Amino acid sequence: MASATIATGDNFNFFSGRIGVKNYASIIVGSPFDYRNKTMLICPADSPDPGSDNFIPYITEKLQEITMYSGGRMLVLFTSMEKMRKVYRDLSSFCKEQGYNLIAQQPGISREHIIGQLKADPNTIVLGCTSFWTGVDVPGNALTTVVIPNLPFPMPNDPLIQAQIKLIEEAGRSSFFDYMFPKMMTTLKQGFGRLNRSMTCQGAVIILDNRIVKKRYGSRIRNSLPSCPFSQKVEDLVHILPC
After folding, report:
1. Which residues of the chain have pLDDT under 70?
2. First to last CA, the chain
3. pTM score > 0.90 for this model?
């Protein structure tokens, strides 16, 4: 098996445990992408707590600011359809006034059709949910900014997730660090990977969830992502976006 996302930190323990394999040979090799010079990770210093009432207005406000730097060419990855729809509604008038093509995932429109518009029109901003975290392939400068409003932790009210958590805790282990965290990191790395699809790709991944800087496990998150410059200022986009 080969993948860019099955390792958690410096080992395969989470993945091997999920598929029931105890004895295996493994190797982690470096990426061919020049993350240090062509990618930047940004978490704005003014990001509010993701559970606060002003978080959705903040997402809309920040996307407007980011758009003024990126000029479009943006993919926004949500963990909630409801939150995505609210942001789409609030962002629509701004995009219409400024001449941006705002598209949101919705029933009846295929992902391929939406991504085709992103490739064809540099003024496009795409809002997507679950299916857009993987399989989106936009090489070159058609996509230069990936925005992730929330860290993609599993939904704790999902019956299957609840059952997994119960089993782990009954075994005396940490349901957060043995399941929730590595599960989130796998999805986060997949979302991060939407930016770098070829050797010519260049841009930024912007995470609006302040837990990557305020929580003790935040450094663990950053260290698990590809090594690249980190900033807490959106204006630093000017140092990484292609002309």
Report:
1. 243
2. 38
3. yes
